[in-house]
Amino acid sequence: MTNHTVDRLVDDYLTRLADAARDLPADRRTELLAEIREHIAASMAGADSMDEAAARTTLDRLGEPADIVAAAAENNPPEHPAYPLPQQVRRPGIGLEVGAVIMLTVGSFIPVIGWIVGVILLWSSGVWRRSEKLMGTLIFPGGPGVVLTLGAAATFMPVGTCTSTASTDPSGQQVMPAAVCTGSVLPQILGIAVLLIALLAPVVVAVVLLKRARARTAIDIH
Amino acid sequence: MAPVETKTLSQLRRGVLEYCVLSLLSGTSLYAFDLVRRLSEADGMVTSEGTIYPLLSRLRREGWVSTTWAESVEGPPRRYYALTPAGEGALLAFTAEWRRFRDTVDALLPAAASPPVHASPPVHASSPADTSLPEGTT
Question: Which of A102, A205, B34, B117 is deepest in the core (most CB within 10 A)?
């Protein structure tokens, strides 16, 4: 019976704290609640767990939830610009962005689906600008996987396939006509060079996208 | 409205509290709960224990303290706080500054026995029973 009262007192308190803390950043809020919960448990471990008076004293000493949250809001920005922060500061995750870039490059070797997933991830991220998303999508449609497959086929094919490859290839249009026709008219070496550029460009774009994502999420901390 | 004295004191307290935390952790690591209890038992330092946790969180983010988890015999694992080298440096720097600051203020303030030049705040005047003020002691 009394134990029930103690539980309810603690639960009420934690609910009020969670309510008051709803405007804090999610990770700060979770952390604060965990620590206060831990504090209550530690305080009650010393006393009889049925002891209602002990529970009240613990909560009284903790103070009003609103005061605790006010202290949390106050302590949120770093207040010591004179002492540079060590790099232990945790960045907000850029898992989505990393996933997008991986699917656009390596993932594009999974036929069709890989690259499409990459594009969806790319456009659902809030970190990049529209122009960057366009760049990620257009260099190159299908990704290196498709470029490599079609490009290799075109480069090493006989001269006559030039026109047919260019017209029947719906996704690689931008790149392939050049690669195909060069390969067929000029020595194969040149075709391979163009192919390499076509492969490298998506990698460069991927690196640029990742760097910008990292830079932007790092700025958001301060 | 809070009297000026209370406001000043609370600002002073807020400014030094984090260094008191660092000082408690100097040379030893402490269980979060014990750390908070020690602070709240120091006279006049903390009014509500819960407000110390956000401060600890900031000190951790600034790299002045670190936390480790330790298994406990009874109950869940416990979070222990310890000073980092950066925290130690900050504590040393503050300690030196504080001594200087304290000496300067002490030298500027009137000696403890003599009453302030301007009259005591009206709060005291409203309680005639409270006559144990310095006026009678000279």
Answer: A205
pLDDT tens digits for range B114-129: 555 554 454 444 444 4
Domains of chain B: 16-107 (1.10.10.10)
SS3 category, A77: coil
Q: Cβ contacts of residue A48 below 8 Å, gap of 6+?
A: A54
With CB atoms and an 8 Å threshold, state whether A32 touches B79.
Answer: no
**Whole-model pTM?**
0.52
A21 → chain B, closest CA residue: B54
By Cβ distance, the residue of B31, B55, B79 closest to A71 is: B55
Q: What is the pLDDT of residues A19-35, one digit of tens each?
A: 999 999 999 999 999 99
Q: Structural domain boundaries of chain A?
A: 2-74, 95-220
Give one DSSP letter per residue of A25-53, joined into a string.
-HHHHHHHHHHHHHHHHHHHHHS-TT-HH
Say if residues A55 and A10 touch (Cβ distance below 8 Å).
Answer: yes
ipTM of the complex model:
0.73
Report the 10 Å Cβ neighbour count for A114: 20
DSSP string, chain B: ---HHHHHHHHHHHHHHHHHHHHHTTTS-EEHHHHHHHHHHSTTT-S-GGGHHHHHHHHHHTTSEEEEEE--SSSS-EEEEEE-HHHHHHHHHHHHHHHHHHHHHHHHSPPTTSPPSSPPPHHHHT-TT---SGGGG-
User: A38: which chain B residues are within 8 Å (Cβ-Cβ)?
Assistant: 32-33, 76, 78-79
